[in-house]
Design a protein that fits this description.
The protein has eight helices and no strands. By secondary structure, it is mostly helical. The longest helix has 32 residues.
Length: 180
């Protein structure tokens, strides 16, 4: 295994040197995994956290501060990634609980029919959207991902995400309003 100084590591990562990046991964991933397991209590999720940290390190290589020891940076990034995931899961839990506490309206057959028709119109309008536009809309509205998360997952800019969401909302609004 390469033994590199902090300066060599930072310069290597900034210059996108795959050998340096691989050496850093091999050296620090096990300790990062141990940190992540303590927070998320799940080995698969911990592996995901470590992968996310290294992916973000690679993406933001030019922003790496050479004054900060890389092991401290990676440990802090791992903790922050875990805490962000935990906060997101807690928000989703609260939302789910709140939805479960909402009173279920007693529906007669007429309102059930109206609901089914509206849902069918919505699905039809959604199917008419361009593939990427629909994918972004569903990731945002159905999966609850933030625009930044969508941009990362689809490897597109955040402005493109916003443009797709705007387009989707306009088209859905027009399609659903113009229905009899």
């Amino acid at each position: 295994m390469l033994q590199l100084s902090n300066d060599e590591i930072v310069k290597g990562i900034r210059s996108r040197n795959k050998d340096v990046f691989e050496a850093v991964f091999k050296q620090f991933a096990p300790s990062m995994y141990n940190i992540a397991v303590r927070y998320v209590k799940n080995e698969d999720d911990a592996n995901d956290m470590v992968q996310d940290v290294f992916l973000n390190l690679w993406k933001g290589a030019e922003n790496l501060d050479e004054r900060a020891p890389i092991n401290h940076y990676l440990a802090r990034a791992t903790v922050n990634t875990c805490l962000n995931r935990i906060k997101k899961e807690q928000r989703q839990e609260v939302y789910t609980r709140e939805q479960m506490l909402q009173p279920i309206p007693t529906a007669n057959s007429h309102s059930q029919l109206e609901h089914k028709e509206l849902e069918a119109q919505y699905r039809h309008a959604l199917e008419k959207l361009p593939d990427q536009c629909r994918r972004v809309f569903e990731m945002s509205r159905i999966k609850g991902l933030s625009p930044a998360e969508i941009a990362d997952q689809l490897n597109i800019s955040i402005n493109t995400v916003y443009a797709h969401l705007t387009t989707a909302l306009k088209r859905l609004r027009v399609d659903l309003i113009n229905k009899p």
